[in-house]
C-alpha cells in the first residue's frame, strides 16, 4: 500500500497525449499494490488506473505481465486491460519509471471472505488456468521450492529472534518440501498471489482479478494451494473447512483436479505456507523499522505452516475425493 | 498522505444506505489529507470522497467545518460539498469514527506553481474571505500567535538538535512577534492551510479549494501571509517576487487591502513562517521515526523565517502600495 513516486501534472499530461482518453480531469495516488505506485485517474474518456513500476519489479518482466493481462482480457476474464496508445508501445515512461495505463475495474476486495467468496475465487482461478493455456509468455517462478533455501539463508541467524527454535523448524520443513515436492503435475501460468485484496466483488459476485505481478509458470495446483493459505484461515488462526471446501469445489467445478493433483495438494499447501513465511521473515529482518513499508508478521504463516503439516489427505480440507461437487 | 482506517464493504454499504447515491461500485483509499482517512468512492449516483475523521481532529469542530463547506458551496465557491443523507445528520459514523460523504472535485493540485497559479490562488482566497462574511460559525485559531510559545516549549530543549542556536533564535523572533503582532485588522474565517496540495486546477484554471480542517477565525491578511510562505518560495529557498506579486495582486483584485493590512503583511508573514516552523519542529521531535507519518523538515521554514525577517515593507514583495493592480 503505497505511492512511491509522485507525478507532476504537466509530465502526466504529456504521457497521456499518446492515448485517446481526452483531457485529464484528476488523478489521486491510491493505497493499492505493494510493489508499484498506482493512481486513480479520471479523464474525459473514462476512469483508469495508472501504474508506475518501481525498482522492485524487473523491467524485463513487464512485457510478460502486460501480455498476460491482454491475453486474459481477450479471453473474457475480467482483469485490468492495458490501454493501447494511438501508436508505440503499451509500456511508456513517466517520472523516470516504466508506466502503463489500465482500464478501471469496478468492485471491492472483501475484508471478510465467506465460503461463497472462496467458491467464486476457486472458480475464477480455474478459469484463469484454462484461459492461459495458449499464452505464449513464460516466466520462471523466482519464489518456488528451489528458491526457499536461499531466502532462508538470506534471513540469516536472526530468524531465531522471531521465535526460539524457528531456524531448526524451518530447516526440517524445507528438507521435507525439497525431497517430497511433487513432480510432473499439470503446469502453466499461475497468479501466485491471489490474496483477498487482489479479487474484486460487486454485489456478491466476483467482478475481477488484479495484480498479476507475481504471475509465473509453475504447478497449477500450487496456485490453489496459495489460495488455501490466503483465504481459508480465520483471523484467530483456525482453519475453516467450509471455506476450503468452497474454494476447492469452486475450482473443480471449472477445472477438475486429477488424483495426482489431489494427492499433492497437502504438500503444495505446506509449500505455499513456507513461501509466504520465508518472504515475510526476510522482510521482517531486512526492512528497517524506519521504512514506510508495512511489515507483515511472519508468525501468521508459521501458524498456518504448522497446521498444514498435520494434513495427510485432502479430505481433511473438508472435500470429497471422488466425483464432482454438487 | 495516509489511510489510517480501513473500512469493510458491508459497513460501508450500510453507511451509504442513508444516501441517495445508488449501489456502491468501488472505493479506494487515497493519499490525500494528513489528518483524516479519505476514500475515493464510486457509486451508481456518481463519484464521491468519503472522509473518516481520525482522532487528531476534534469532533466538536466538525459541525463548524461541514457548515463552512456548505456555506461556501452555497455562495458558489468551488469546494467539496457535504452530501445530505435522506434523513438525519450530515455527519455519520463509520468504523467507529465520525464520517461524511462529499462531492468529488475535478482538478489536480500543482506541484510546480507559477505566478499565474499564485494570482488565481490570491483571487480565490479573497473570494473565500468575502463569502464567509455571513457565516455564523466560529472557531478559535488554536495555532495563532498566542499558541506559539507553548508549541516552542513543547518542542523542548531538543530544538537545538535541528540546528545549533535555534532555541535562542526562535525565542528572539517569538518576542518580536508577540510584541509587534498587529491588532484591529479585518478578521473573519480563514482557510489557514491553503498550500498547493489544497488548491485544484483544471486546464490552467483554478477549479476548487479543499481541506478546510484548519479553518478558524483570525486576521484575514494572515491567510494571505500563509499563502505567501506556501506558494512564493522556490525549492532552493529563494523568494520569488513575481509569484508574490501575482498572489497579492490576485487577492487585491477581489478584496482590496487597506493601508493597515499592507503595513502589517511583513509581520504577519513572519508569523506564518514561525507557525509552520514550530509545528514542524514539534512533529520532528515528537513523532517517532518508526511512524508512518512523513515528517517535514522544519529547516525549510527556518530559512523562510530568516528571509521574511529582513522585509520591512510590502513593496519588497514586488507589489505597488498604491492603487489597484493592472
Automatic annotation (TrEMBL), chains A, B:
Pfam families for the chain: APH
Domain of life (superkingdom): Bacteria
Keywords: Amino-acid biosynthesis, ATP-binding, Kinase, Nucleotide-binding, Threonine biosynthesis, Transferase
A molecular function (GO) term: homoserine kinase activity
Catalytic activity: L-homoserine + ATP = O-phospho-L-homoserine + ADP + H(+)
SUPFAM superfamilies: Protein kinase-like (PK-like)
HAMAP family the UniProt entry points to: Homoser_kinase_2
Family: Belongs to the pseudomonas-type ThrB family.
NCBIfam families: PRK05231.1, thrB_alt
Protein name: Homoserine kinase
Native organism: Aureimonas populi
